[in-house]
Amino acid sequence: MIEINNLCKSFDDKDVLKNISTTFENGKTNLIIGQSGSGKTVLMKNLVGLLTPTQGTILYDGRDFVAMTKKEKILLRREMGMIFQSAALFDSLTVLENVMFPLDMFSNMNYRERVRRAQTCIDRVNLLGAEQKFPGEISGGMQKRVAIARAIALNPKYLFCDEPNSGLDPKTSLVIDDLLHSITQEYNITTIINTHDMNSVMGIGENIIFIYQGEKEWQGQSKDIMTSTNEKLTDFIFASDLLKRMKQSEMDRLHRQS
Questions:
Q1: Exposure pattern of 6-15 as b/e (b: 16+ CB <10 Å)?
Q2: Which of 7, 125, 159, 177 would disulfide-bridge 56, Cβ 3.0–4.6 Å?
């Protein structure tokens, strides 16, 4: 479990995060949602140590991340897995070598054990037969699955995903969502996902934090969204659907005129 208390982050005179307190639960897909510029990316960067909070605490199973020494933070980061928006694979390495990379860097396994562990992760994300392919030889969806396999190679307690469905078609996005959700439950990981994808929100949103202008505006589950009376949340959730309807209406109008 990750608990944050009164978290603030400022850049010069600009307050980007304002007294955010929340809990990210084990074995659940915890989603951070919000408009561009709302502060959700800054929040995640504080959680993984890429930024240091101006104020507040971040507790990893009771351990205060902010107060740790540099050495202690490095050790804790080994308990974290990261999935980046672009997959961030090494183009010159095969799928197997990409998944083995964190094992080569941080594990005490011998070579055969590292290969076996990497193969287990590749099998878990349904990429059997792709081991010797290079990233440029596989689809975007397969690349994201390689990124997931790499992220779970060290058996992380905490999994951070930055827009994992970015650039994917709706069908492939559902596959990635289902995979992240099942892995989270199977390994009892604390998974935190930054996303704009409303299909993800409604499909796997077990614990959703809505950030608005740097503040936690709402928190709940996907089933609570439809009955929420929070106007800011409602505007955000239904904005994409409204735009789609407006676009379709305009296309219909042009079609009638032609």
A1: ebbbeeeeee
A2: 7
